Amino acid sequence: MPDSALNATTDASAWRDTKRYLWPLPVLLTAIPLIGWYLYAETRLEAWLWLSPIFFYVLIPIIEIGFGEDRSNPPREAIPRLRDDPFYRWSAFAALPAAYLVWVVGAWYVANMDLTITAYIAVTIANGLMGAGALNTAHEVGHRRDKTSINVARFLLCLCGMGHFRIEHNLGHHVQVATPEDSATAMMGESFYAFVLHELPGGFKRAWRIEKTRLGRKGKSAFSFENEVFTNTLITLGMYAAFVLWLGPIVLPYLIAGALLSNLMLSSANYIEHYGLIRPKRPDGRYERVQPHHSWNANHIVSNVMLYHLQRHSDHHAHAERPYQCLRHFDSAPQLPAGYFTMFMAAWNPPIWFAIMDKRVAEQHGYDMTKAYIHPKKRDKIMKRFHHPEGVYQAAE
Questions:
Q1: pLDDT (average), residues 154-170
Q2: 188 φ, ψ to 5°?
Q3: Are 190 and 383 in contact (CB under 8 A)?
Q4: What is the pLDDT of residue 393?
Q5: In contact, 336 and 296? CB cutoff 8 Å
Q6: Taking residues 33-62, what's their average pLDDT?
């Protein structure tokens, strides 16, 4: 993908990362559940236990409106310097002890604080949101090839019961993205809830299949400790069992529901990132290479800092090993109308999501809906409403 497509600053020597000292914020904000739990212990006001969801899904969308977008890019010449700066690497690595601290404190909390059912649910939700942040960090560092990054990613994933994700994402999703073979690409007209039903099991199956094939070439069983999916699953089960032995079965809903919520948050990102976008097949039967227009992007400053530039998703797919601080905006990439936290809430309400996004999918394809990735059961309805290659949109009656 040529840099001419990018809005890049040209003076590399003068360029500075204006967000440099904001990147530790995601780790610092991991402490939000701890603040809420402490204030509840002091006041017994259950409202404090809901501090995390209120912060991430009320305050951040509001704050983001005021901060707007940042479409600037580092100049090409500055990327090696930016990439090799250890500050960024260790800013992300700090998520590992922070996440485990919150996880352990939360488990102790639900076992010892004599909580009401609603208070227990609130603590579990805070744990799940923390886990979602851990998964996002694992996604970022899991694309690196050094052992430290891989191990940080693995232990963050194991915390949330997603030990298969690094294999599935790097060797599955990145290869098959925006094709019918990819369980993590959502079809136009497909609700988030329908998507999750095939995306979550599909991801695990694909990761297991990849590892089984790799080990089979070596003449080894899939149930080998060389199988990252198998080993990580055992680590998760072992950690959860240790918590039950330590604190009793009361922690099981906290562990399982928290992990499920973090998984659903990751699925929310997968759902919105490629919704309705598909790569056409070339005459030789192979899919077109991944282009900027195969991912939805967002340049909203606040959520991009919180998510390590995950929203610059086109460049991430073009250069999967490029670290977050170097990811660039493409003018040709389709843009979401808001940051991920706001768009997640829209995705959880299918009528609102379809109202916001279906017309954007049609616009992206010039109203030629033969180019869109459409759910088979919704094809006739969508074609009738949106298929106007001449570019004239007919509003539904």
A1: 98
A2: -60, 130
A3: no
A4: 53
A5: yes
A6: 97
pLDDT in tens, 343-385: 999 999 999 999 999 999 999 999 999 999 999 999 999 999 9
How many CB atoms lie under 10 A from the CB of residue 244?
Answer: 14
- What is the DSSP code string of 196-240? HHHHHHHHHHHHHHHHHHHHHHTT--SSSTT-HHHHHHHHHHHHH
CB 374 within 8 A of CB 278: no
Residue 73, strand partner residues: 8
pTM above 0.85, yes or no: yes
391: number of Cβ within 10 Å: 10
- Would residue 7 be called left, alpha or beta, if left means φ above 0 and alpha means ψ between -120 and 50 degrees? beta
Q: Amino acid identity of 157?
A: L
Q: Which residue has the tokens 């706001």?
A: 342
Residue 174: count of CB within 10 angstroms of its CB: 16
Write out the two tokens for 103: 């996880």
Distances (CA, A) of 155 to 93, 161, 308: 11, 10, 19
Residue 11 clears pLDDT 70, i.e. is over it: no
Domain range summary for the chain, segments of one domain joined by +:
3-365
Question: 3-state SS of the chain: helix, strand, coil percent to 5?
Answer: 65, 5, 30
Q: Cα–chain-centroid distance for residue 156?
A: 14
Separation CA 264–CA 261 (nearest Å): 5
d(CA 284, CA 317): 23
